Amino acid sequence: MLKKIWRFIWKALLFLFVFSVLLVIAYRFVSVPVTILMLQRCVEQKTDGREMVLNKQWEPIDKISNNLQLAVVASEDQNFLWHHGFDFGAIEKAVKYNEKQEKKKHPHLRGASTISQQCAKNTFLFPGRNFIRKGLEVYFTILIEVFWSKQHIMEVYLNVIEMGNGVYGAEAASEYYFHKHAKDLSPSEAASIAAILPDPLKWSASNQSPYVANRTAAILSQMRLFGGRLDYNMKE
User: If you average pLDDT over every residue of the chain, what do you get?
Assistant: First the structure.
């Protein structure tokens, strides 16, 4: 009986492994139709009696302004082009910072997730903060770093990430906040969108609070340090 149980478990794990690899490979060639977070938000809207909104439109990377690509790197993950999914230097700094913060009455903890990790989480996983989900995030991050290029990771990330209430991806956010296509975003508009990504349900890119305005200015400054353009050949 015990052997049958173990055999079933191993077969199930093998199936999940093969399925996950095939799914990652498939998303290298086809767009992601929907994510678990998108579906969850729809359920939350319906439960709260609000209008159900799912505003998204997939755009290839060459139709998303390089300004926005650079802005999210400048704000979220400045070593994106060079790491292999995990920025261990940033993780070490975040751990040390959080250890000091935990001693305070109102700690402000800092994360160290890379764009690759956020892409893996947003594309394949359910929202949550537990060891199982974190382990799956690590697993899918490794898979997309193996099977996708950095440019494709950026493309998927900028098409599935939540950027407002019912707003997902660069094209929907560009039209929602600035009434233009994602390919036409200026540096300041791109920086404004990147500035709200830590909490897009709370902040607005077009009607900025002082905090978001300060973040936008800081991101623009970092973008200039990158030379004003994200060049995927920089890693070579």
Answer: 90
Domain 45-235 classification at class level: mainly alpha
SS3 readout for the chain = CHHHHHHHHHHHHHHHHHHHHHHHHHCCCCCCCCCHHHHHHHHHHHHCCCCCCCEECCCCHHHCCHHHHHHHHHHHCCCCCCCCCCCHHHHHHHHHHHHHHCCCCCCCCCCCCCHHHHHHHHHHCCCCCCHHHHHHHHHHHHHHHHHCCHHHHHHHHHHHCEEECCEECHHHHHHHHHCCCHHHCCHHHHHHHHHHCCCCCCCCCCCCCHHHHHHHHHHHHHHHHCCCCCCHHHHC
Distance from CA of residue 194 to its chain's centroid?
11
Q: What is the dihedral of CA 232, 226, 158, 156, to 10 degrees?
A: 20
131 contacts 148 by C-beta, under 8 angstroms: no
pLDDT digits (tens, 9 = 90+) for 137-155: 999 999 999 999 999 999 9
Report yes or no: 88 and 110 within 8 Å, Cβ to Cβ.
Answer: no
Q: Which residues, in sequence order, are CB contacts of 25 under 8 Å at separation 6+?
A: 147
Whether the per-residue pLDDT at 57 is higher than 90: the answer is yes
The domains of the chain are located at 45-235
Distance (Å, rounded) from C-alpha 58 to C-alpha 53?
16
In this prediction, residue 115 has a pLDDT band, given cuts at 50, 70 and 90, of very high
